[in-house]
Amino acid sequence: MNFNPWHHVEIGDECPNVVNAIVEISKDSKTKYELDKKTGMLRLDRVLFSSLLYPENYGFIPKTLGEDHDPLDIVVISQCSIVPMCVVQARVIGVMRMIDHGEGDDKIIAVAEDDMSVSGIQDIGDLGKHFKMELQHFFEEYKALEQKTVLVEDFMDAATAKQILLDSINRYQETYA
Prior knowledge:
Elements: H1 5-8, E1 18-25, E2 31-35, E3 42-47, E4 57-60, E5 73-77, E6 87-100, E7 103-104, E8 107-112, H2 129-141, E9 150-156, H3 158-176
Parallel strand pairs: 5-8
Antiparallel strand pairs: 1-4, 1-6, 2-3, 4-5, 6-7, 6-8, 6-9
């Protein structure tokens, strides 16, 4: 049996408050990697068409299934870039509700539990207005030169994010159990 981080890494004992996040893309990267769902390897999806860089570490939560039929996405805030395929304990603080190609594509927002520089952030409201504007700008613009449209609907609190997370766990279990 091949090891696949989506199916074989545990979500974490403190879920939905703290989850294991698997980083696919490091903060400040222009390289878009995606998990190959069949092999569990990272695949180069593309080099971003725009001059934008990922503003934070980006990846997925194991044993979840989002509305877009992929593992649930997660943005992990940290003062440093985290290497791809690293498992990070991430404290859920909110969610960015997003529509990509007409489908729901929520991004759980979390902070790296082991990074003391972000330990005071408990909920999405603790993030500055500018930070949320930057995150929204990145996700709405990084595909623009590909002639693709993404719409960020809203930022929601930790309670909403945790419910979305629990729903994605149920969806995963119904699909893969």
